[in-house]
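Reproducibility note. Readers wishing to regenerate the assembly model reported in the main text can use the exact inputs given here. Chain order matters: entities are listed in the order in which they were concatenated for prediction.
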Amino acid sequence: MVRRFIAFFVLLASASMPIAAATVAEGEWPTAARDPQNTRFSSLDDVKADNVGRLRLAFSFPIGVERGQEAAPIVVGSTMYIVTPYPNFVYALDLTKPGAVVKWRYDPKPDASAQGVACCDVVNRGAAYADGRLFFNTLDAQTIALDAESGREIWRAKLGDIKRGETMTMAPLVVKDKVLVGNSGGELGVRGWLTALDAASGRVVWRAWSTGPDGDVLIGPNFKPFYPQDRGKDLGVSSWPGGAWKIGGGTVWGFVSYDPALDLLYYGTANPGPWNPDQRPGSNHWTSGIFARRPDTGEAVWFYQFSPHDLHDYDGVNENVLVDLPIEGRSRQVVLHPDRNGYLYVVDRASGQVLSADPFVPVTTSTRVDLQTGRLVYNPAKDPRGGETVRNICPASPGGKDWQPSAWSPRTRLLYLPHQNLCQDAETYQVSYIAGTPYVGADLKISAGPGGHRGEFTAWDPIARRKAWQIDENFPVWSGALATAGDVVFYGTMDGWFKAVDAKSGAPLWQYRTASGVIGQPISYRGPDGRQYIAVLAGVGGWAGAIVSAGLDGRDGTAGGGFVNAMKDLPRHSTRGGMLYVFTLP
Amino acid sequence: MSSRCPSARAARGLLALVVALGTTAFAADDDGRTLRVCADPANLPYSDRAERGFENRIARLVAAELGARLEYAWQPLGRGFVRKSLGSGACDVLVGVPAGLERVLTTRPYYRSGYVFVNRADAPRPLVSFDDGRLRELRIGVQLIGDDLAATPPGHALARRGAVERVVGYPVFGELPAAARAEADLAAGRLDAALLWGPQAGYFAASGPVRMRLTAARAPAGLAMPFTFAIAMAVRQEDRALQAQLDAVLARRAFDIAAILDDYGVPRWPLDDVASARADAAATRADAVPIGARP
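Running the prediction on these inputs yields the following structure tokens for the assembly.
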């Protein structure tokens, strides 16, 4: 009886304690997701449900680049760091001075041709701070280290080839003495990788490819995937026709997570490319899945494929939030992963076993995830077919949720998901032209899913495996989420509202009208004056907002990969922008 | 194969008409008129910065005919090229786009080309048909568009016939044009055949180290997809006056334009090719942005 009681107590403690708490100073926000577990939870609680209504603008700062602002501001000590979209300026703002004065500004002077290559606006998702240095990526595929105090460049590493379509947009994660970065551009035949750079020198320590022979993928004797379909020699070659793996996509443009206790990194791989599905029969390993790896060597420990032989552009890059949950009577160390394919996965992060996978949006492209085999069961009626029209494909290519990162509150044990509610029709093939080559392509037309609203902000209970509450939004919710210990959750909308809602009920508590739509990652920090601040960048764009930031033609519904069709009215609701907003209580 | 020059009188009459309609489409400067053309700075055989492509030569001819100074705005023919060229006002003319392209006004088409099988001239059994029994065994190169779910018509035809295992894709973005890379591999014996877009196939076949044989590719039965495309010039949708002037020049100088195309080995089909009319009937668009959200 006594033993049982103790066991129960331990379980409660492990389930409610944020595992990140030990590694990040309370009032700081040193990396895009704040902690290596990617919780985006701030333990600050000055701002609560009963006072958030009095939140006021403390200061704002124009960052001088009016493209999609997807970055998280970084706060360490009394300095805030911001990376802009291309041309990737970096600002250090002195938070001790009224209005936040610029301490230094750095211009990396990236190759201008990178703009024409980036598929979905010229975004950047933020920097990472560690040991006095600031690390960030440029659109032309460089990683740069700056001295955080002076802004002086310490090193820069050229990691990809812009001529082949390789770009970088993700926010690095620093683990121990390594900077982890990945590439973008899979639709152009770029072969995906995650690279570890020595934080001191910028030297490449290891590179793990997402396709190819086991040696390239860093698969060795310690690779123990949970499911048999992920076992076998050189699957990164044999699950592709011919040499298609050499240009097979699987880029790594999402967020990287790290569990110090298990000493494992987690990240997702993008969809296979650039062939259409008919031309790449096979499971197309290791695309559209998740890897667990050792940070020291990069060696793979397990892998799970969310969308084998992806048919719908469902990248597997969405964030992996590391939490401990009581499941069926015992505490499990899990990854929470809301995938583009519409399922919220709960995966044992030591073994790679899928514990549950439940749709969080309407899904027609598959019927379920088989928990015995781990396989996604596709619905063949929604498979793309050359020359035929397929309607009501749900979720659309941007998925049930795209890059916009969710937040976890250990207090409510809810995962706060900013996401979209979109379906698409793949129309008859039409003639198109690129690089002097005429061809026929599918015309995708994306539109609102059931209910007619295009966005949702959902609180998901991963233990009960259902929605706790949901807020419908007119436009896709393309911003990140922020959860705080004051039980207030923040997110922004593309039509320019920055919102606070009750973490437990979803009740609206406060909102602020920004000059442009919000697609950035909100953060919270404690300023040098001891107050709690909430900060977010506003400036609409990204794939969803390119109709505004890139000036796409709303009459061409297939522009922006079909997304423009769903966003024709956005220009009436938001103009371009690039502004930092920082809020506090009076 | 190329179309012939229509009556010179009719052409002169048309020119007189359009001049009367106005010439505001031209940028005026101190020296007179300027024809502003957007072109890819590195995309032979069409154009390059040194103006060595056939579209450069056609642009020169058209400018001279209109008495205008030729000026280039260099713009890669990649994503969003219509928006970044005509759309942004950087230029007034695109020299070569598929006829009927959406969101621009296209002139009368001035040539039609098609996809071709490319074999080494010394190949004992060249691949010339999708019905060839060796289709699944041969190493066949195709251009790879890089737009999810998209492929060139021959790419679709090969996939339809189950020829995927040994097909080799050449992404259209890269240091060299995809067709140049494919033909280099064909010359080196790393491919057995290639299926490429005619103007590129013809040009790189002529300039490569090994003699090549080009054969028109015809759609296999059951694949309703165009294999030839008519090519025209493009202006902004409201530039009807400029369109009319260009139409007149294209008609009047059709013979000279055909000679330029011959110089570059552009394989051509009759412009009124009935079997290919589908290609024009289909709504045509550019600015294809790959579907993937891979920022």
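We highlight two features of this model. Chain A touches chain B through 77 residues (CB under 8 Å). The longest strand of chain A covers residues 422-434.
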